[in-house]
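Extended Data, panel c. Modelled sequence:
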Amino acid sequence: MEIFEALDATECAHSAAALAGVDPKTVRRYARMRDAGRPTGGPVSRPKVIDPFMPKIEEWVDRSQGTVRADKLHERLQLMGFAGDERTTRRAVARAKERWRAGHRRTYLPWITEPGLWLQFDWGWGPKVPGPGGGSERETLLFCAWLAWSRFRVVIPVWDRTLPTVISCHDSTLRAIGGAPTYVLTDNEKTMTIDRVAGIAVRHPQVVAAGRHYGLQVHTCVPLDPESKGGSEATVRIAKADLIPTSVNLREKYGSFAELRGACAIFCQQVNTRVHRETGKTPASALDVERSRLHPLPVAPHTLALGESRQVLRDQTVRFGSVRYSTPPGLVGQEAWVRADGEELVVVVDLSRLAHRPEWMQGPAGLMEVARHPLPLPGRPVIDLAHYPNHPQETDGSPRQPKPKPVDDAEEAFLQLGPGAKSWLIEAGAAGTTRIRVKMAAAVELAALIGPAEVDLGLGLAATAGRFAEDDLMSIVQHRRHGTRPADLVVADETHSVQPGTSAWADFGRPAS
């Protein structure tokens, strides 16, 4: 029988205890709780040793705005006569802080935005990947943008967040969504806010100019208030959870920056094509509706998006990061914009400013990407040989050999013998041969007797064999008259010997038997 049922039937605590099978004191306690109107199923509150000190604890918690430390409060309570341990104080302070926060908790109004109105972006640290040119691993950054109405996300990996990189990421984001919204909301970093006066943010003038170029206005949120742009904060959190290799997502390390860029593209495709739990439709389909409210983009990006300004030097190169990069001909002295795009360097030039139209230029003049090079380690120039057509330097960088050019009748008569005469002159000059003019005159006289073709062939064989003595040409011509092939000629060098064999030296140094 239940306690209350037995008590109502007997109206005696002892009799009800006997019927319910409990102690009479239990029956009396339940009777007092029922008479006082308190619930009987909850925990029993018993007096604690810290109860007399709770008003003082709540006073200290309220004075410190819920930030006071429990160990410091325990030291003060001991001075006031508290005899309990520190664990009891910590529990009491935790309950007091919880009650204080309940009365000071911040509430949020749901943000109901309009299509084509707000774009938010934020930064997050990305994974480590090998640096450009096979360098050591470097930290990367993730540019995370979020279109408020359609929940469309764009994630772009970069190496830094300098002002040209920021504007370049904005340009790529706006072209990915197909238009420009009215406002852009972000943090108060130095690339956006250069100063604060009386709590009012002072925008970076170049950021303002870039916003006017795209037809939008840049806003910064309240400092230390990430909740005002929670959409981009959530985008950063979701992107980092999926793209940074951890033991939770089982993602392998990236072998290059290109792999990270591909992973970001796959991530954006996945999150933009799955149904959003708030809107009940995919962000990609919602973007088709929102795109009708976006402003058209200018054809050319803002100059800050093109990168840092450089001048094309006299050697047709631009310098970026202690490295020289080649450019096509016809751009010396012109202004160029360079930026790092992943593991490549992009060079952009405004061809409409050129006084002379280069031969390689096609189509209308304007901003054009003229070169794209891989990023090497510092100190290693990157030269595209196609940028130097008909240059007097060899393709490997060594000086090109001079071509024979006659300056008088004797030299012209010798060089007219053929290519063998030219080869002989080049090789003889490199070998330091003496009396070259006398030997050239002798070759011309010999050609008048036996024909220029035979002498030219002999000069070519002499140049190949390295024979530039007085009678070497005559010896080669006579040797050919006996029917010997040029392939049978022996070049005098260290690999040949005139000794018939080495058997005579077999017993050299051995004692006689």
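The longest strand covers residues 118-125. This feature is highlighted in the accompanying rendering.
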